[in-house]
Specification:
16 strands; globular; alpha+beta; about 45% helix; Cytochrome p450; about 400 residues
Length: about 400
Protein backbone atom coordinates (compact mmCIF):
# COMPACT_ATOMS: atom_id res chain seq x y z
CA UNK A 1 0.00 0.00 0.00
CA UNK A 2 1.08 3.56 -0.67
CA UNK A 3 0.37 6.13 2.05
CA UNK A 4 -0.41 9.84 2.07
CA UNK A 5 0.95 12.20 4.78
CA UNK A 6 -1.74 13.51 7.10
CA UNK A 7 -0.72 17.16 7.57
CA UNK A 8 -3.07 18.86 5.06
CA UNK A 9 -5.82 16.26 5.09
CA UNK A 10 -8.31 16.64 7.98
CA UNK A 11 -10.33 13.69 6.69
CA UNK A 12 -7.36 11.38 7.23
CA UNK A 13 -6.83 12.93 10.67
CA UNK A 14 -10.51 12.23 11.39
CA UNK A 15 -10.14 8.52 10.65
CA UNK A 16 -7.23 8.27 13.07
CA UNK A 17 -8.84 10.51 15.69
CA UNK A 18 -12.01 8.45 15.94
CA UNK A 19 -10.37 5.08 15.20
CA UNK A 20 -12.64 4.28 12.27
CA UNK A 21 -12.69 0.64 11.11
CA UNK A 22 -9.11 -0.57 10.45
CA UNK A 23 -10.14 -2.30 7.21
CA UNK A 24 -11.08 1.07 5.71
CA UNK A 25 -7.60 1.85 4.40
CA UNK A 26 -8.82 4.56 2.01
CA UNK A 27 -9.88 6.74 4.95
CA UNK A 28 -6.28 6.72 6.13
CA UNK A 29 -4.82 7.91 2.84
CA UNK A 30 -3.60 4.50 1.73
CA UNK A 31 -4.10 2.99 -1.70
CA UNK A 32 -3.17 -0.51 -2.95
CA UNK A 33 -0.18 -0.49 -5.28
CA UNK A 34 -1.78 -3.07 -7.59
CA UNK A 35 -5.07 -2.22 -9.34
CA UNK A 36 -6.39 -5.80 -8.99
CA UNK A 37 -5.60 -8.11 -6.09
CA UNK A 38 -6.72 -11.70 -5.60
CA UNK A 39 -7.40 -12.40 -1.92
CA UNK A 40 -6.49 -16.04 -1.38
CA UNK A 41 -8.05 -16.06 2.08
CA UNK A 42 -11.52 -15.29 0.71
CA UNK A 43 -11.24 -16.32 -2.94
CA UNK A 44 -12.40 -12.83 -4.00
CA UNK A 45 -10.87 -10.50 -6.61
CA UNK A 46 -10.59 -6.89 -5.42
CA UNK A 47 -10.59 -4.05 -7.97
CA UNK A 48 -9.48 -0.57 -6.88
CA UNK A 49 -9.03 1.78 -9.84
CA UNK A 50 -11.69 4.12 -11.22
CA UNK A 51 -11.41 3.26 -14.93
CA UNK A 52 -11.38 -0.50 -14.30
CA UNK A 53 -14.50 -0.27 -12.16
CA UNK A 54 -16.25 1.83 -14.79
CA UNK A 55 -15.50 -0.84 -17.39
CA UNK A 56 -17.03 -3.52 -15.17
CA UNK A 57 -20.13 -1.38 -14.57
CA UNK A 58 -20.57 -0.96 -18.30
CA UNK A 59 -20.01 -4.62 -19.26
CA UNK A 60 -23.21 -6.60 -18.70
CA UNK A 61 -22.03 -9.37 -21.03
CA UNK A 62 -19.12 -10.58 -18.92
CA UNK A 63 -20.20 -9.45 -15.44
CA UNK A 64 -23.35 -10.15 -13.46
CA UNK A 65 -24.89 -8.40 -10.48
CA UNK A 66 -26.11 -11.79 -9.31
CA UNK A 67 -23.48 -12.96 -6.84
CA UNK A 68 -25.83 -15.24 -4.95
CA UNK A 69 -25.67 -17.73 -7.81
CA UNK A 70 -22.17 -18.53 -6.50
CA UNK A 71 -23.56 -19.74 -3.17
CA UNK A 72 -25.11 -23.16 -2.65
CA UNK A 73 -27.94 -22.20 -0.30
CA UNK A 74 -31.67 -22.49 -0.93
CA UNK A 75 -32.44 -19.82 1.67
CA UNK A 76 -30.00 -17.36 0.12
CA UNK A 77 -31.36 -17.95 -3.38
CA UNK A 78 -34.97 -17.56 -2.21
CA UNK A 79 -34.24 -14.02 -1.07
CA UNK A 80 -32.58 -13.21 -4.40
CA UNK A 81 -35.85 -13.26 -6.36
CA UNK A 82 -37.09 -9.70 -6.70
CA UNK A 83 -33.96 -8.14 -5.17
CA UNK A 84 -33.24 -5.36 -7.66
CA UNK A 85 -29.59 -5.15 -6.62
CA UNK A 86 -28.98 -8.80 -7.54
CA UNK A 87 -30.80 -8.90 -10.89
CA UNK A 88 -29.68 -8.55 -14.50
CA UNK A 89 -31.20 -8.24 -17.93
CA UNK A 90 -34.92 -8.34 -18.61
CA UNK A 91 -35.92 -9.14 -15.04
CA UNK A 92 -33.97 -6.14 -13.77
CA UNK A 93 -35.50 -3.89 -16.44
CA UNK A 94 -39.02 -5.04 -15.55
CA UNK A 95 -38.62 -4.51 -11.81
CA UNK A 96 -36.77 -1.21 -12.06
CA UNK A 97 -39.37 0.10 -14.49
CA UNK A 98 -42.09 -0.83 -12.02
CA UNK A 99 -40.65 1.05 -9.06
CA UNK A 100 -39.06 3.99 -10.90
CA UNK A 101 -42.52 5.49 -11.34
CA UNK A 102 -42.53 6.19 -7.61
CA UNK A 103 -39.24 8.11 -7.79
CA UNK A 104 -39.87 10.58 -10.59
CA UNK A 105 -38.30 14.04 -10.12
CA UNK A 106 -41.72 15.57 -9.40
CA UNK A 107 -42.70 12.97 -6.81
CA UNK A 108 -39.36 13.33 -5.05
CA UNK A 109 -39.49 17.15 -5.13
CA UNK A 110 -43.04 17.12 -3.73
CA UNK A 111 -41.72 15.34 -0.63
CA UNK A 112 -39.69 18.37 0.48
CA UNK A 113 -42.35 19.93 2.77
CA UNK A 114 -43.00 16.59 4.47
CA UNK A 115 -39.26 15.98 4.98
CA UNK A 116 -38.95 19.43 6.55
CA UNK A 117 -41.95 18.83 8.84
CA UNK A 118 -40.59 15.47 10.04
CA UNK A 119 -37.16 17.02 10.70
CA UNK A 120 -38.67 19.86 12.74
CA UNK A 121 -40.83 17.42 14.71
CA UNK A 122 -37.86 15.19 15.52
CA UNK A 123 -35.66 18.11 16.59
CA UNK A 124 -38.48 19.62 18.66
CA UNK A 125 -38.43 16.41 20.68
CA UNK A 126 -34.85 17.12 21.82
CA UNK A 127 -35.13 20.90 22.23
CA UNK A 128 -33.15 22.24 25.17
CA UNK A 129 -30.71 19.36 25.42
CA UNK A 130 -27.06 20.26 25.71
CA UNK A 131 -26.17 17.13 23.75
CA UNK A 132 -28.08 15.30 21.05
CA UNK A 133 -27.34 11.91 19.56
CA UNK A 134 -27.65 12.59 15.87
CA UNK A 135 -28.35 9.06 14.67
CA UNK A 136 -31.08 8.16 17.16
CA UNK A 137 -32.60 11.65 17.23
CA UNK A 138 -32.61 12.45 13.51
CA UNK A 139 -30.41 10.56 11.03
CA UNK A 140 -32.16 7.22 11.56
CA UNK A 141 -35.84 8.13 12.10
CA UNK A 142 -36.09 10.71 9.29
CA UNK A 143 -35.31 8.48 6.28
CA UNK A 144 -37.10 5.46 7.73
CA UNK A 145 -40.29 7.49 8.25
CA UNK A 146 -40.05 8.88 4.71
CA UNK A 147 -39.58 5.48 3.02
CA UNK A 148 -42.20 3.84 5.26
CA UNK A 149 -44.74 6.50 4.32
CA UNK A 150 -43.91 6.01 0.64
CA UNK A 151 -44.45 2.26 0.96
CA UNK A 152 -47.54 2.76 3.08
CA UNK A 153 -46.37 0.91 6.18
CA UNK A 154 -46.48 2.44 9.66
CA UNK A 155 -43.53 4.69 10.40
CA UNK A 156 -44.32 4.00 14.05
CA UNK A 157 -42.90 0.50 13.49
CA UNK A 158 -39.44 1.98 13.03
CA UNK A 159 -38.12 0.24 16.16
CA UNK A 160 -38.88 -3.06 14.39
CA UNK A 161 -37.10 -1.87 11.23
CA UNK A 162 -34.11 -0.79 13.31
CA UNK A 163 -33.91 -4.21 14.97
CA UNK A 164 -33.81 -5.93 11.57
CA UNK A 165 -31.38 -3.44 10.05
CA UNK A 166 -29.09 -3.72 13.08
CA UNK A 167 -28.85 -7.49 12.58
CA UNK A 168 -27.29 -6.75 9.18
CA UNK A 169 -25.22 -3.72 10.18
CA UNK A 170 -23.72 -5.45 13.22
CA UNK A 171 -22.66 -8.58 11.34
CA UNK A 172 -18.88 -8.59 10.94
CA UNK A 173 -18.25 -11.63 8.75
CA UNK A 174 -16.65 -11.45 5.33
CA UNK A 175 -17.81 -13.46 2.34
CA UNK A 176 -15.48 -16.30 1.45
CA UNK A 177 -15.29 -18.49 -1.65
CA UNK A 178 -11.85 -19.82 -0.82
CA UNK A 179 -12.61 -23.48 -0.08
CA UNK A 180 -13.11 -25.17 -3.44
CA UNK A 181 -14.00 -28.49 -1.77
CA UNK A 182 -17.01 -27.09 0.03
CA UNK A 183 -20.22 -25.48 -1.27
CA UNK A 184 -19.84 -21.72 -1.35
CA UNK A 185 -21.96 -20.52 1.58
CA UNK A 186 -21.68 -17.13 3.28
CA UNK A 187 -20.31 -17.60 6.81
CA UNK A 188 -23.10 -17.12 9.38
CA UNK A 189 -25.48 -16.73 6.42
CA UNK A 190 -28.17 -19.00 7.76
CA UNK A 191 -28.13 -17.37 11.18
CA UNK A 192 -28.37 -13.89 9.66
CA UNK A 193 -31.26 -14.95 7.44
CA UNK A 194 -33.07 -16.33 10.48
CA UNK A 195 -32.67 -12.97 12.20
CA UNK A 196 -34.19 -10.97 9.35
CA UNK A 197 -36.86 -13.49 8.27
CA UNK A 198 -39.51 -11.69 10.39
CA UNK A 199 -38.95 -8.62 8.19
CA UNK A 200 -40.04 -10.59 5.12
CA UNK A 201 -43.03 -12.02 7.01
CA UNK A 202 -44.00 -8.50 8.07
CA UNK A 203 -43.88 -7.19 4.51
CA UNK A 204 -45.83 -10.18 3.18
CA UNK A 205 -48.61 -9.47 5.68
CA UNK A 206 -48.86 -5.85 4.51
CA UNK A 207 -48.77 -6.87 0.84
CA UNK A 208 -51.62 -9.34 1.41
CA UNK A 209 -53.62 -6.61 3.12
CA UNK A 210 -53.14 -4.35 0.06
CA UNK A 211 -54.56 -7.05 -2.16
CA UNK A 212 -57.70 -6.99 -0.05
CA UNK A 213 -57.85 -3.21 0.32
CA UNK A 214 -55.58 -1.17 -1.99
CA UNK A 215 -54.46 2.31 -0.94
CA UNK A 216 -52.63 5.22 -2.53
CA UNK A 217 -49.13 4.00 -1.65
CA UNK A 218 -46.14 2.33 -3.25
CA UNK A 219 -46.91 -1.11 -1.82
CA UNK A 220 -50.38 -1.06 -3.41
CA UNK A 221 -48.77 0.07 -6.66
CA UNK A 222 -46.36 -2.88 -6.54
CA UNK A 223 -49.21 -5.31 -5.85
CA UNK A 224 -51.17 -4.05 -8.87
CA UNK A 225 -48.30 -3.23 -11.21
CA UNK A 226 -47.79 -5.05 -14.48
CA UNK A 227 -44.75 -4.82 -16.71
CA UNK A 228 -45.23 -6.24 -20.18
CA UNK A 229 -48.43 -7.83 -18.89
CA UNK A 230 -46.70 -9.70 -16.07
CA UNK A 231 -47.32 -9.05 -12.37
CA UNK A 232 -44.74 -9.53 -9.65
CA UNK A 233 -44.79 -12.88 -7.90
CA UNK A 234 -45.40 -12.87 -4.15
CA UNK A 235 -41.73 -13.55 -3.47
CA UNK A 236 -40.58 -10.86 -5.90
CA UNK A 237 -42.92 -8.31 -4.37
CA UNK A 238 -41.92 -9.02 -0.77
CA UNK A 239 -38.17 -9.14 -1.47
CA UNK A 240 -38.43 -5.98 -3.54
CA UNK A 241 -40.32 -4.09 -0.83
CA UNK A 242 -37.88 -5.23 1.87
CA UNK A 243 -34.93 -4.09 -0.26
CA UNK A 244 -36.55 -0.66 -0.70
CA UNK A 245 -37.22 -0.35 3.01
CA UNK A 246 -33.67 -1.30 4.00
CA UNK A 247 -31.71 0.49 1.29
CA UNK A 248 -34.10 3.45 1.46
CA UNK A 249 -33.11 4.31 4.99
CA UNK A 250 -29.84 2.60 5.96
CA UNK A 251 -27.63 4.29 3.36
CA UNK A 252 -29.27 7.68 3.91
CA UNK A 253 -28.77 7.38 7.66
CA UNK A 254 -25.08 6.68 7.10
CA UNK A 255 -24.73 9.51 4.57
CA UNK A 256 -26.36 11.99 6.95
CA UNK A 257 -24.24 10.97 9.93
CA UNK A 258 -21.03 10.96 7.88
CA UNK A 259 -21.77 14.46 6.59
CA UNK A 260 -22.21 15.89 10.08
CA UNK A 261 -19.04 14.13 11.22
CA UNK A 262 -17.22 15.76 8.29
CA UNK A 263 -18.65 19.12 9.30
CA UNK A 264 -17.00 18.64 12.66
CA UNK A 265 -13.71 17.77 10.95
CA UNK A 266 -13.95 20.70 8.51
CA UNK A 267 -14.97 23.76 10.60
CA UNK A 268 -13.84 26.32 8.02
CA UNK A 269 -15.90 24.73 5.26
CA UNK A 270 -18.81 24.32 7.66
CA UNK A 271 -18.84 28.03 8.46
CA UNK A 272 -18.88 28.79 4.73
CA UNK A 273 -21.84 26.45 4.31
CA UNK A 274 -23.67 28.10 7.21
CA UNK A 275 -23.23 31.42 5.47
CA UNK A 276 -23.98 30.19 1.96
CA UNK A 277 -26.45 27.31 2.00
CA UNK A 278 -26.20 26.90 -1.77
CA UNK A 279 -22.90 25.11 -1.03
CA UNK A 280 -24.60 22.41 1.02
CA UNK A 281 -25.34 19.93 -1.83
CA UNK A 282 -21.70 20.07 -2.95
CA UNK A 283 -20.53 19.61 0.66
CA UNK A 284 -22.69 16.49 0.95
CA UNK A 285 -21.45 15.18 -2.39
CA UNK A 286 -17.81 15.60 -1.41
CA UNK A 287 -18.54 13.80 1.86
CA UNK A 288 -20.10 10.93 -0.08
CA UNK A 289 -17.01 10.75 -2.30
CA UNK A 290 -14.60 10.54 0.62
CA UNK A 291 -16.75 8.62 3.12
CA UNK A 292 -18.96 6.45 0.94
CA UNK A 293 -21.58 4.56 3.01
CA UNK A 294 -21.14 1.45 0.84
CA UNK A 295 -17.40 1.23 0.15
CA UNK A 296 -17.65 -1.69 -2.28
CA UNK A 297 -20.14 -3.51 -4.47
CA UNK A 298 -19.92 -7.04 -5.81
CA UNK A 299 -20.14 -8.58 -9.26
CA UNK A 300 -19.60 -12.11 -10.54
CA UNK A 301 -17.87 -13.11 -13.75
CA UNK A 302 -20.00 -14.79 -16.40
CA UNK A 303 -16.96 -15.67 -18.51
CA UNK A 304 -13.21 -15.45 -18.19
CA UNK A 305 -12.25 -11.79 -18.35
CA UNK A 306 -9.23 -9.52 -18.17
CA UNK A 307 -9.11 -6.67 -15.66
CA UNK A 308 -6.08 -4.39 -15.63
CA UNK A 309 -3.98 -7.11 -17.24
CA UNK A 310 -5.08 -9.88 -14.85
CA UNK A 311 -6.96 -12.91 -16.15
CA UNK A 312 -9.98 -13.61 -13.96
CA UNK A 313 -11.72 -16.97 -14.45
CA UNK A 314 -15.44 -17.56 -14.92
CA UNK A 315 -17.72 -17.71 -11.85
CA UNK A 316 -15.52 -15.58 -9.65
CA UNK A 317 -16.61 -12.86 -7.25
CA UNK A 318 -15.33 -9.35 -7.94
CA UNK A 319 -15.39 -6.66 -5.27
CA UNK A 320 -15.38 -3.17 -6.79
CA UNK A 321 -13.92 -0.81 -4.20
CA UNK A 322 -15.80 2.40 -4.91
CA UNK A 323 -14.15 4.14 -1.97
CA UNK A 324 -10.68 3.47 -3.38
CA UNK A 325 -11.80 4.54 -6.87
CA UNK A 326 -13.20 7.76 -5.40
CA UNK A 327 -9.65 8.58 -4.27
CA UNK A 328 -7.95 7.54 -7.50
CA UNK A 329 -5.45 10.32 -8.28
CA UNK A 330 -5.77 9.56 -12.00
CA UNK A 331 -9.38 10.79 -11.78
CA UNK A 332 -9.44 13.21 -8.84
CA UNK A 333 -6.68 15.81 -8.43
CA UNK A 334 -5.36 15.78 -4.84
CA UNK A 335 -7.88 13.02 -4.09
CA UNK A 336 -7.54 12.99 -0.29
CA UNK A 337 -8.32 16.70 0.00
CA UNK A 338 -11.84 17.61 1.08
CA UNK A 339 -12.94 20.20 -1.47
CA UNK A 340 -16.66 20.96 -1.94
CA UNK A 341 -15.77 23.20 -4.89
CA UNK A 342 -14.44 20.16 -6.76
CA UNK A 343 -16.04 20.17 -10.21
CA UNK A 344 -16.81 17.91 -11.78
CA UNK A 345 -17.11 15.38 -9.00
CA UNK A 346 -17.88 12.10 -10.82
CA UNK A 347 -17.64 9.86 -7.77
CA UNK A 348 -19.01 6.33 -7.82
CA UNK A 349 -20.72 6.24 -4.44
CA UNK A 350 -24.16 5.81 -6.04
CA UNK A 351 -22.91 3.33 -8.62
CA UNK A 352 -23.15 3.76 -12.38
CA UNK A 353 -24.91 2.26 -15.35
CA UNK A 354 -28.03 0.12 -15.11
CA UNK A 355 -27.69 -0.26 -11.35
CA UNK A 356 -27.17 3.38 -10.45
CA UNK A 357 -28.93 4.06 -7.15
CA UNK A 358 -32.61 4.68 -7.79
CA UNK A 359 -33.06 6.53 -4.52
CA UNK A 360 -30.07 8.88 -4.83
CA UNK A 361 -32.21 11.97 -5.64
CA UNK A 362 -34.38 11.29 -2.56
CA UNK A 363 -31.32 10.78 -0.34
CA UNK A 364 -29.82 14.06 -1.57
CA UNK A 365 -33.09 15.87 -0.92
CA UNK A 366 -33.41 14.47 2.60
CA UNK A 367 -29.85 15.47 3.41
CA UNK A 368 -30.24 19.00 2.01
CA UNK A 369 -33.53 19.72 3.75
CA UNK A 370 -32.65 18.15 7.10
CA UNK A 371 -29.16 19.68 7.29
CA UNK A 372 -30.57 23.12 6.56
CA UNK A 373 -33.01 22.74 9.45
CA UNK A 374 -30.26 21.35 11.70
CA UNK A 375 -27.92 24.26 10.95
CA UNK A 376 -30.72 26.77 11.52
CA UNK A 377 -31.61 25.17 14.83
CA UNK A 378 -28.08 24.84 16.23
CA UNK A 379 -25.49 27.62 15.83
CA UNK A 380 -23.00 25.20 17.42
CA UNK A 381 -22.66 21.49 16.69
CA UNK A 382 -19.48 19.70 17.69
CA UNK A 383 -18.40 16.17 18.44
CA UNK A 384 -17.69 15.40 22.09
CA UNK A 385 -14.17 13.99 22.73
CA UNK A 386 -15.42 12.62 26.05
CA UNK A 387 -18.29 10.81 24.34
CA UNK A 388 -16.86 9.90 20.94
CA UNK A 389 -18.80 8.57 17.96
CA UNK A 390 -19.05 4.85 17.38
CA UNK A 391 -19.05 3.18 13.98
CA UNK A 392 -20.94 0.37 12.29
CA UNK A 393 -18.83 -2.78 12.83
CA UNK A 394 -19.72 -4.33 9.47
CA UNK A 395 -16.63 -3.77 7.26
CA UNK A 396 -18.88 -3.58 4.20
CA UNK A 397 -20.34 -0.30 5.40
CA UNK A 398 -18.88 3.05 6.47
CA UNK A 399 -21.02 5.04 8.83
CA UNK A 400 -21.50 6.27 12.37
CA UNK A 401 -23.52 4.06 14.69
CA UNK A 402 -23.83 6.82 17.26
CA UNK A 403 -22.82 10.48 17.00
CA UNK A 404 -23.18 12.53 20.20
CA UNK A 405 -23.04 16.26 19.48
CA UNK A 406 -22.61 19.18 21.85
CA UNK A 407 -25.01 22.01 21.04
CA UNK A 408 -23.29 24.76 22.95
Amino acid sequence: MTSTPMTKYPMIDMAERWNIHPDHFWLRGRQPEDPVVFDEATGVWNVYRYDDIMKVFGDTVNFSSDIKRLFDSAEVNEHKEGNLIQLDGEEHRRLRGTVSKAFTPKIVADLEPRIRDITIELLDAVTGKEEIELVADLAYPLPVIVIAELLGIPGSDRDLFKKWATAILDSTYKISLADADQPATPPEGERLIDKVQPMFDYMREHANERRRAPREDLLSHLVAAEMDGVKLTDTELVNFAVMLLLVGHVTTTMMFGNTVLCMDAQPDWTERVRTDRSMLPAFVDETVRLVSPLPAVARSTIAEVEIAGRRVPKDQMIMLYLSAANRDEAKFPDPHLFDPTRYPNPHLAYGRGLHVCLGAPLARLEARVALNVLLDRYPVLRADPDNPPTFIPNPGMTGVHTLPLRTG
